[in-house]
Design brief:
4 strands; 6 helices; alpha/beta; single chain
């Protein structure tokens, strides 16, 4: 999906690169000249909600293209660069509690996030000898524009909130804090993990 440029006034050294991550060739071209990269957060995602019996080919192709295939491709590019330089690194995949709990009308989304969790473990297994750590964070509903759009119905939101012991959805900062920890040396012995940021949802 194409992401519009954002203002980076707080971090003027950041250069945004806009690319359709579902397009393998375009992504390859956009990222081939960048670097060196030591840290990676795979955060792009789409959530196309359909009942199981109404799931379309288009929803499958779009969701798996962005939520999983792009993670593989971008991680390959970054990991190959790290290995070529002999440098350690850290990759964090943004998964979801939907990887571990079935949610109505989330057939394809749940499937892509479940696949991401296992991808994270395989990446950790194969990249560990190169000193590259790979972990996932598994948030509950996060109050991003996508989260607000999909959970704006009070009745629908209540069914989820009733299953969260802390009684609220996550804010962006809740997830960012965990991502920063997993990127940092403070988690230097952590790899292959899926870390809930869900207010206790997965504990129930």
């Amino acid at each position: 999906m194409t992401v519009p440029p954002l203002p980076y006034t707080q971090c003027p050294g950041i250069k945004p690169v806009c690319v359709d991550l579902s397009d393998w060739e375009a992504t390859e071209r956009a990222l081939s000249g960048l670097g060196p990269m030591d840290l990676l957060v795979n955060n792009a995602a789409v959530a196309l909600l359909q009942p199981f019996l109404e799931v379309t080919k288009e929803a499958c192709d779009s969701s798996f293209g962005v939520n999983l295939r792009a993670v593989i491709q971008v991680s390959q590019i970054v990991a190959r660069g790290l290995i070529a330089r002999g440098a350690p690194g850290s990759i964090v995949n943004v998964s979801s509690q939907a990887s571990q709990r079935a949610l109505t009308n989330h057939t394809v989304y749940c499937a892509t996030k479940g696949a991401m969790d296992m991808l994270t473990k395989v990446m950790a297994l194969e990249l560990g000898p190169h000193k590259i750590r790979v972990n996932a964070v598994n948030p509950t509903v996060v109050m991003t524009p996508m989260g607000k759009a999909n959970w704006s119905d009070p009745l629908k939101a209540k069914t989820m909130l009733d299953r969260i012991p802390l009684g609220r959805f996550a804010e962006v900062e809740d997830v960012v804090g965990m991502i920063l920890f997993l990127l940092s040396d403070r988690s230097s012995m952590t790899t292959g993990s899926t870390v809930p940021v869900d207010g206790g949802f997965l504990a129930t």
